[in-house]
């Protein structure tokens, strides 16, 4: 049987990983500033994470949600404390798309409405409703086409206000990434997020903060939406939550009440996933990783801004993007081939940095040196 060929891939086989480094099957070492789509939050194979999972594996890995799983309550309490949203309610699932699917659905159950406001360049996942709210026609199958999603320009307060004025009573939810990831590292303005909050309050819509990529400490705050100083009604999470162990979740504000059987899952909240997520939060606190993300992010952005050949350095914490002009368009490829450094990309010409939140200064320096060296070489050739 062949694999269903859905992505172009790098011809590299990674067999080992530790911290911010991975090794291929030839023993070659790579600096990983991509974390496999922003997933590695506390570092590859972190010893505390490995130990927690190993210990749990020897007790019980899975049982369904038909029984009590105290680890879920432990995770809810810890997540509430670390995120500062202690009065929210936790629903566990397995991926980012699933988290957004549940968020959008729950919002609709809550206010009985159908319309969703999403934004240009948004990416919310591949499942039916999440993909309908994703601004890429290539991902939307005919069966997912719907009139229920309204796309508006990102950070355009006037357009948002006009939309609510016209049909505010029909809008169930507004879904927005605090920092667009796949869309190219576009930071939502503080005033825009505040405007979403006030319009949702005024019209009874649900503010959904897609924090799948920009959440879990990546921005230097637990949620990048926290920069706006307002609370969303639902936050969706995944990626960094399990540091590579598949887990997703939504946290739900107290005014949204649960009803039996509206949401459900077989695998969500299983014992192994819960300990993986607990281990991540424990390491985040112990190693003060949010502070490190702020510090290393500032260093990287400042150094990148000094390199005149690259443009429009942006982002928060360790979610950084910059534009690569045509003259140095091979920068990403050359960083990988010549310097053994993994970075991410966004179309058409953005390099995305999404390293472990434990990134060390010497590794950040090595990256900056490699960028400068590579640009010099490309200029000569
Ligand atoms: C902002 C955002 N939301 C949702 C998703 C979907 O997550 P998953 O691939 O875990 O379904 C992604 C994945 O890249 C994402 O970046």
TrEMBL record:
Family: Belongs to the class-III pyridoxal-phosphate-dependent aminotransferase family.
Cofactor(s) demanded: pyridoxal 5'-phosphate
Protein name: Aspartate aminotransferase family protein
InterPro entries the record matches: Aminotrans_3, Class-III_PLP-dep_AT, PyrdxlP-dep_Trfase, PyrdxlP-dep_Trfase_major, PyrdxlP-dep_Trfase_small
Pfam families with a match to the protein in the record: Aminotran_3
Key word Transferase present: yes
Family matches, as CDD domains: OAT_like
GO MF annotation terms: identical protein binding; pyridoxal phosphate binding; transaminase activity
Alphabetical UniProt keywords: Aminotransferase, Pyridoxal phosphate, Transferase
Superkingdom to which the source organism belongs: Bacteria
């Amino acid at each position: 049987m062949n694999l269903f060929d859905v992505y172009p891939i790098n011809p590299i086989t990674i067999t080992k990983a530790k911290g911010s480094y991975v090794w291929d099957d030839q023993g070659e070492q790579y600096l990983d500033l991509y974390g496999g789509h922003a997933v590695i939050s506390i570092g590859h194979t972190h010893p505390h994470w490995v130990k927690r999972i190993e210990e749990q594996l020897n007790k019980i890995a899975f049982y369904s949600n038909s029984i009590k799983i105290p680890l879920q309550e432990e995770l809810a309490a810890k997540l509430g404390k670390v995120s500062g949203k202690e009065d929210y309610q936790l629903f566990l699932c397995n991926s980012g798309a699933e988290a957004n699917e549940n968020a959008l659905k729950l919002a609709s159950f809550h206010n009985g409405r159908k319309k969703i406001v999403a934004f240009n360049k948004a990416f919310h996942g591949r499942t039916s409703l999440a993909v309908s709210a994703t601004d890429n026609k290539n991902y939307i199958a005919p069966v997912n086409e719907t009139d229920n999603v309204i796309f508006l320009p990102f950070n355009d307060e006037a357009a948002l206000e006009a939309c609510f004025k016209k049909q505010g009573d029909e809008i169930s939810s507004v879904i927005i990434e605090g920092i667009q990831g796949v869309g190219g590292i576009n930071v939502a303005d503080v005033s825009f997020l505040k405007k979403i909050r006030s319009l949702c309050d005024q019209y009874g819509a649900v503010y959904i903060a897609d924090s799948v990529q920009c959440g879990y400490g990546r921005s230097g705050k637990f949620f990048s939406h926290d920069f706006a100083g307002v609370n969303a009604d639902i936050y969706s999470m995944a990626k960094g939550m399990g540091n590579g162990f598949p887990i997703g979740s939504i946290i739900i504000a107290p005014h949204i009440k649960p009803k039996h059987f509206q949401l459900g899952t077989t695998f969500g909240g299983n014992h192994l996933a819960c300990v993986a997520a607990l281990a991540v939060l424990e390491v985040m606190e112990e190693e003060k990783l949010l502070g490190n993300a702020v510090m290393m992010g500032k260093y990287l952005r400042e150094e990148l801004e000094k390199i005149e050949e690259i443009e429009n350095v942006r982002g928060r914490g360790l979610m950084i993007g910059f534009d690569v002009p045509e003259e140095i368009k091979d920068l990403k490829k050359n960083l990988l081939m010549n310097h053994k450094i993994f970075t991410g990309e966004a179309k058409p010409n953005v390099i995305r940095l999404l390293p472990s939140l434990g990134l060390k200064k010497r590794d950040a320096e090595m990256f900056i040196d490699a960028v400068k060296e590579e640009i010099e070489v490309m200029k000569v050739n």
